[in-house]
Design brief:
The chain is of the alpha/beta class and 301 residues long. Helix content is 25%, strand content 29%. Bound molecules: NADP nicotinamide-adenine-dinucleotide phosphate. NADP nicotinamide-adenine-dinucleotide phosphate (NAP) is lined by residues 42, 45, 47, 114, 146-152, 154, 171-172, 176, 198, 232-235, 276-278. This is Thioredoxin-disulfide reductase.
C-alpha cells in the first residue's frame, strides 16, 4: 500500500509529488496522458515568478524534469474511481486497483463547451479550444475568439500574430481579463471587439464557414463569414472520479488545508473550488495538500 497516490500530473500533482518525496513518503503520481491539462494549452505564461515569459508546455517540461530529478515516480494510468475505505483508499484504474493511505485529487479542469449547435460537429474542423495547437492552421485567415477572460485575451493576442484578423466576441461590454491584457489587445490593429454579443450557431459544410451572432441588447441576429472559432468561456473541473462535496459546477470543496469532505482525501489545483485558478496557486495547493496528507498519515493533525 502506498502512503500517497496523487491523481493528476499537472503543476498541482507534481508539486505535491516533490513535497511528498521530501517528506519521505512512498508516493506515486498517476497521470492520464502526456498532455498535462490546462497548462499545456496555454501559449504564454507571464505571471509565474522566475519565468518572465514562458510557454505552458515549456514550463510543464521544467516541472516534470524537476519532479523526476527529485525522485517522484509517475505512471500513465487513467483513474476511473477513488473510493474512501477509511484507512485504505482504493484507486481504480482501467487495469488495476491501487491502495493508498491518502489521496490527492489533482485532476485539473478542461475547457468549458459553449454548448451551441455546430460546436461539436466542427471540432477540429474550424472549432478549437487551443490557439497554440491549432492557430497555425489559420495563418492569414480570419477567426473569432469567444469569451472575455484571461484565456480568451491571451490566446487572441497569440492568434493576432498568426492570422490576418481576430474578432473577440464577448457577451458583455466589459472584459473580465486583467487590465494589462486588455490594454495589449486594444493596441493590436488586427484585433476587433464585438461587444454584447453571443455566438448562437456555428455553420458550414465540411469546415466552419460562418457564425450566427446575436446582439444581446438589440436581440438582432446576423451571420458573419469566418474561418475559425476559438472558444475560451471558462473551465470545467474533472472531478467525476470521486464522491466528495463539490460546488454546483463540480469544483471540489476544500478547507484551506486542501482537505475534502472525506478524511485522507485532498484536492489541489484547478479541480478545487477557489478564487484564483493559476499555475502559481496550483503548485501552492499541491504543497499544502501533501503536508496535510503527511500529518494525517502520521496522526499529527
Ligand atoms: P473565465 O475567467 O471564467 O472567463 C470566461 C469568459 O467567458 C468570461 O468573459 C465569460 O463572460 C465568458 N463566458 C462564460 N460563459 C459564456 C457563454 N456561455 N457564452 C459566452 N461567453 C461566456 O475563464 P478563463 O479565461 O478560461 O480563465 C479560467 C481561469 O484560469 C481564471 O481564473 C483565469 O484567471 C485563469 N487563467 C490564468 C492565466 C494565467 O495565469 N496566465 C491565463 C489564462 C487563464 P463574463 O465575463 O460575462 O462572465
Amino acid at each position: 500500500m502506498y502512503d500517497l497516490i496523487i491523481v493528476g500530473g499537472g503543476p498541482a500533482g507534481l508539486s505535491a509529488g516533490i513535497y511528498a518525496v521530501r517528506y519521505g513518503m512512498d508516493v506515486l503520481v498517476l497521470e492520464k496522458s502526456i498532455v498535462q491539462g490546462q497548462i499545456s494549452l496555454t501559449s504564454v505564461i507571464e505571471n509565474y515568478p522566475g519565468f518572465a515569459s514562458i510557454s505552458g508546455g515549456e514550463l510543464m517540461q521544467q516541472f516534470k524534469a524537476h519532479a523526476t530529478a527529485a525522485g517522484v515516480k509517475t505512471k500513465a494510468a487513467e483513474v476511473k474511481k477513488v473510493e474512501d475505505g477509511g484507512d485504505r483508499k482504493i484507486i481504480s484504474t482501467f487495469d488495476e486497483e491501487i491502495e493508498a493511505r491518502a489521496v490527492i485529487i489533482a485532476t485539473g479542469a478542461e475547457p468549458r463547451r459553449l454548448g451551441v449547435p455546430g460546436e461539436s460537429k466542427f471540432l477540429a474542423r474550424g472549432v478549437s479550444y487551443c490557439a497554440t495547437c491549432d492557430g497555425p492552421f489559420f495563418a492569414g485567415q480570419e477567426v473569432i475568439v469567444v469569451g472575455g477572460g484571461d484565456s480568451a485575451i491571451t490566446e487572441a493576442l497569440i492568434l493576432s500574430g498568426i492570422v490576418s484578423k481576430v474578432y473577440i466576441v464577448h457577451r458583455r461590454e466589459e472584459l473580465r481579463s486583467c487590465n494589462l491584457l486588455k490594454e495589449r489587445a486594444a493596441e493590436k490593429e488586427n484585433i476587433e471587439f464585438i461587444w454584447d454579443t453571443t455566438v448562437e450557431e456555428i455553420l458550414g459544410e465540411e469546415l466552419v464557414e460562418k457564425v450566427r451572432l446575436k446582439n444581446v441588447k438589440t436581440k438582432e441576429t446576423t451571420e458573419m463569414s469566418i474561418d475559425g472559432v476559438f472558444i475560451y468561456v471558462g473551465i470545467t473541473p474533472r472531478t467525476g472520479i470521486v464522491d466528495v462535496d463539490k460546488d454546483k459546477v463540480g469544483f471540489i470543496k476544500t478547507s484551506d488545508l486542501m482537505e475534502t469532505s472525506a478524511r485522507g482525501i485532498y484536492a489541489a489545483g484547478d479541480c478545487r473550488e477557489t478564487v484564483l485558478w493559476q499555475v502559481v496557486t496550483a503548485v501552492s495547493d499541491g504543497a499544502v495538500a501533501t503536508v496535510s496528507a503527511y500529518k494525517y498519515i502520521m496522526g499529527l493533525e
